[in-house]
Amino acid sequence: MIYYLIRKILFLIEPEIAHILILKFFSLKYIQNIIYFFLKPLPQKKIKCMGLVFDNVLGTAAGIDKNGEYIDIMSKLGFGFLELGTVTPLPQYGNPKPRLFRLVSEEAIINKMGFNNLGIDNLIKNIKKSKFKGIIGVNIGKNKNTSIENSINDYLICIEKIYCYASYITINISSPNTVNLRNLQYGIIFDQLLKKVKKTQKIMHKKYLKYVPIAIKISPDLSIKELIRISKKLIEHNIDAVIATNTTIDYSVIPDIKKNLKKGGISGLPLQRKSTNIIFILSKILKNRIPIIGVGGINSLYSAQEKIKAGATLIQVYSGLIFHGPSIIRKIIKKI
Ligand SMILES: Cc1cc2nc3c(=O)[nH]c(=O)nc-3n(C[C@H](O)[C@H](O)[C@H](O)COP(=O)(O)O)c2cc1C
Is the separation of the CB atoms in 129 and 67 below 8 Å? Predict the structure, then answer.
């Protein structure tokens, strides 16, 4: 109720500034104290996935806290795990603004951020500073100026640097806002990427005596044939999890979308059915051999349950938080 009032003001502000303002608001000490005073503890609903124990099934999707600046406050809102990033080896500005749009009546967000982030070294500093002891996933990508041919190296640099500090690592090859990034999902380069990532994971495992699972985040715009091929490769290379899905560039999910908005990835309600469908198909192909982390359009307990029913072991949320506020976290966790 209170959030819907705050939302009225927030939605008058430019989306990127509103995003920072709301996170800063929840980071204020006295706001946190008020929240803790009124919040009852959540029931214990631990779940095992990728060999890790998660406090509950619901985590933050990548993009909310790209630089790990809000780890402690996000964890206290009730999330069972946090996925930070996408971070790249070097800091970068991302695409020019405006690059984030809200479609309130459709309950959708369109973004063409382009991996704006302060780089992996800065993220490591922030993880070290945080007090959170739960599961932290780190989502990694390639720098804009790295060619696709050399992109695997960017992922390997990030894995080596973050290995000690992450509970799991997500290889993001599905953002539609970095030119040709999605090409990494296909053919020989996909095979090479998985092979080299697993080789680096093995070396790091030996070095630090700690196994950090690797997840691959895929696009919702893949055909069944492509999902079959990707799944085969994930199994062949012993990948630890698949995250489905990133945002869509299938603009038909929003009928009557304005031409000038057909530029970025769509998230939120229009993505809900598409991503659930991908999870369902993946679960039929994978047959529990690799866990699925479901994300895309979760905005209620019902839509969260749909993702689990379709085959997801864990779920993540981003746009639903913007439209419904942090109360949806507790609504989902209490009853799921
Ligand atoms: C503004 C914005 C930024 C995002 N940034 C990233 C990112 O950096 N890396 C990534 O893997 N996904 C990113 N995503 C995609 C989300 O993690 C998620 O996969 C997608 O939004 C679908 O979930 P939702 O409908 O709950 O938002 C971003 C989404 C939004 C809306």
Answer: no
For the chain, state the CA radius of gyration. Answer: 19
Does ligand 1 come within 6 angstroms of the Cβ of 272?
no
Counting Cβ atoms within 10 Å, is residue 218 exposed (0-12), middle (13-18) or buried (19+)?
Answer: buried
How wide is the angle at C-alpha 154 spanned by C-alphas 184 and 82, nearest 5°?
A: 85
* pLDDT, tens digit, 9 for 90 and up, residues 216-232: 999 999 999 999 999 99
- Asked whether residue 178 carries a pLDDT value surpassing 90, the answer given is yes
User: Which range marks the domain in which residue 217 is found?
Assistant: 2-335
Q: Is 270 in the pocket of ligand 1 (CB under 6 A)?
A: no
Q: What CATH number is given to the structural domain containing 222?
A: 3.20.20.70
The total number of structural domains that make up the chain: 1
Q: Which of 168, 174, 185, 172 is nearest to 234 (CA)?
A: 185
pLDDT of residue 63: 98
| Ligand 1: nearest atom to the Cα of 295 | 23
